[in-house]
Amino acid sequence: MAVNRFRFMASNIGGRHVMQGRDFTSKRIAVVGPAAPLEGTHVQLDASQFDYLIVMNRLLHSKPENVFGAPAIGKVLFHNLEETGERSAGNLSKNALFEEHVKYVVFPHATYLGVGGKFYRASNTLSKFGVELKVLPFSFYNELVEDLGGYAPTTGLAAIAYLLRCPVHSVSISGFTFFQTGYQKEYNNSLEANTQPWVWAKHTGLHDPDREVEVARRRVNEARKAGKQVCLDASLQTILTR
User: For residue 110, with 0-12 CB atoms within 10 Å meaning exposed, 13-18 middle and 19 or more buried, which class applies?
Assistant: First the structure.
């Protein structure tokens, strides 16, 4: 049973910092994750065919082939604001953000206590780079935690579930396997080479891989029933239809 430490934690972050779904109205969205299969299964991604490209954490620096180097379309980086330490998601450097035309950085965990000071410091720094720092809506995040039985969603699931909820035209999702495979090289340095990702995730007690898959499947199906176009890469399609 999950410890419900991520549930109903009030946040003092609000107002203009809350991500608004209307920003993505009728937009064509590509959400790209760090799973190892991305390198082999999504070479067909033509980022120029999308209005927004959504990427996770260290992908700002690892730059998967045929994902970056795209025209200056809107890029949104989901990032946990940890730039050092075990859970570092990579440096939010001015050069990298500018070179990749990042419009928003989104903090995916809307309900962490004590994050306010760090959030506003990061916001002040990023604003000097011309980048807005956003947070997911509190009610949305709490609902997602509830769906996961009290576990924290991964950054990837938070991004996917949120974009599928927005009034988008279409969402293309690739590079996510929810711990069924490893990450791209150097994406997660805390995961030992001989450790199975599923086992590692279970051991940390932060995420539940099985629940992640279940919730992702449900959210994709709900979006399709609502008339949204949802395209999955081959690996994720296999995982969600098992």
Answer: buried
Token pair recorded at residue 37: 């299969």
pLDDT in tens, the chain (242 residues): 444 444 444 455 667 888 888 889 999 998 888 776 554 544 456 667 888 888 887 677 665 544 545 555 678 999 888 777 666 667 788 888 887 778 899 998 876 655 667 888 889 999 999 899 999 988 899 999 999 998 889 889 999 999 999 999 999 998 888 877 656 555 555 544 445 665 556 656 567 888 999 999 999 999 999 999 999 988 888 889 88
Burial class (CB in 10 A: 0-12, 13-18, 19+), 72: exposed
- CA dist 92 to 57, 83, 110, 223, Å? 9, 7, 19, 32
Residue type, 164: L
Q: Residue 91: name the closest of 111, 76, 105 by CA.
A: 105
